[in-house]
């Protein structure tokens, strides 16, 4: 049975302190009548305005797929069918965005090196779907702590996995911007995609690496746990990243999920640090809040 869910969403992108152009793009939406919302963040690359074009193509193409999702047919389906339809829309949006970027590259030689990361979260009732390509990230925060929902497709992540680099060293590594998967590079791109069931009120945060360059998971958790109103965390985090140097473009999207009539995301003064990558509360059962 689906739980009563209300959703609110906000986002911001910023050029930072060094770059001459903002190659990030972000979009978000909350349905006025249905418990449906999403956030999409893309971090472009390629110079000559190519990165900005690639990220813009990504968010526009994916948003178009999502805009066609909530139909009478969808609403009449079972929760399991709806989950599969959302996953199909996510994969279709990413696939179409990838091909559109490749087509744009073919039309203009100046864009031959462009591409983009993408990370997205879609909430329908108590279902959360997360997908990503590249090193832009999604996080889930509740009163139980912070969970990083995505694992970077990057050279430094592979080095961390191999034990040759720590997460702290990765943030200053010379190859920290080298990603191993992106839109616009090959005709076939496979996103990492997972669906969860939301069982308690939470914050979902999506961001480009212009933010995570400066914050580890414990620092992100502290801001999400203590800063209110919750949706204004996106402004606070971007301002903090700029004060720390702002070497890259910075984008943050926030989706606030309130589950049940009497539950809300309340501030906490002290919570345990959440590092780690585990996306489940029980092994092999991707649910939150049990």
Which properties best describe this structure?
290 residues; alpha+beta; Phosphatase 2c, domain 1
Topology diagram in text:
Layout: E1 5-14, E2 24-30, E3 36-45, H1 50-67, H2 72-75, H3 79-107, E4 115-116, E5 118-124, E6 127-133, E7 137-142, E8 145-148, H4 155-162, H5 167-170, E9 192-198, E10 202-207, H6 209-212, H7 217-226, H8 233-243, E11 250-259, E12 287-288
Parallel strand pairs: 9-12
Antiparallel strand pairs: 1-11, 2-3, 3-4, 3-5, 5-6, 6-9, 7-8, 7-10, 10-11
Helix pairs in contact: 1-3
Question: What would you say this structure looks like, in words?
Answer:
The chain has eight helices and twelve strands. It has helices at residues 50-67, 72-75, 79-107, 155-162, 167-170, 209-212, 217-226, 233-243; strands spanning 5-14, 24-30, 36-45, 115-116, 118-124, 127-133, 137-142, 145-148, 192-198, 202-207, 250-259, 287-288. The strands form two sheets. Strands 2, 3, 4, 5, 6, 9 and 12 form a seven-stranded mixed beta sheet that branches. A five-stranded antiparallel beta sheet has the order 1-11-10-7-8. Strand 2 (24-30) and strand 3 form a beta hairpin. Helix 1 (50-67) runs antiparallel to helix 3. It is globular. It comes from Thalassolituus maritimus. This is Protein phosphatase.
């Amino acid at each position: 049975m689906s739980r009563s869910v209300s959703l609110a969403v906000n986002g911001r992108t910023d050029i930072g302190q060094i770059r001459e152009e903002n190659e990030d793009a972000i979009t978000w939406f909350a349905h006025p009548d249905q418990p449906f919302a999403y956030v999409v963040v893309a971090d472009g690359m390629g110079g000559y305005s190519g990165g900005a074009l690639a990220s813009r193509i990504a968010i526009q193409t994916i948003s178009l797929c999502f805009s066609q999702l909530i139909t009478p047919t969808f609403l009449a389906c079972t929760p399991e069918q709806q989950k599969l339809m959302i996953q199909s829309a996510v994969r279709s949006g990413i696939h179409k965005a990838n091909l559109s970027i490749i087509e744009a590259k073919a039309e203009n030689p100046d864009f031959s090196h462009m591409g983009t990361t993408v990370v997205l979260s879609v909430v329908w009732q108590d279902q959360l779907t997360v997908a990503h390509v590249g090193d832009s990230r999604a996080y889930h925060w509740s009163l139980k702590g912070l969970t990083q929902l995505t694992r970077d497709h990057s050279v430094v992540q592979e080095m961390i996995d191999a034990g040759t680099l720590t997460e702290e060293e990765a943030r200053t590594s010379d190859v920290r911007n080298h990603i191993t998967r992106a839109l616009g590079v090959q005709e076939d791109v496979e996103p990492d995609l997972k669906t969860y069931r939301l069982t308690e009120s939470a914050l979902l945060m999506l961001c480009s690496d212009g933010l995570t360059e400066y914050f580890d998971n414990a620092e992100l958790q502290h801001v999400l746990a203590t800063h209110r109103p919750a949706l204004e965390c996106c402004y606070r985090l971007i301002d903090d990243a700029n004060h720390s140097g702002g070497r890259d473009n910075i984008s943050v999207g926030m989706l606030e999920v309130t589950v049940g009539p009497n539950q809300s995301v309340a501030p906490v003064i002290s919570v345990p640090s959440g590092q780690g990558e585990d996306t489940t509360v029980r092994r092999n059962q991707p649910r939150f809040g049990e």
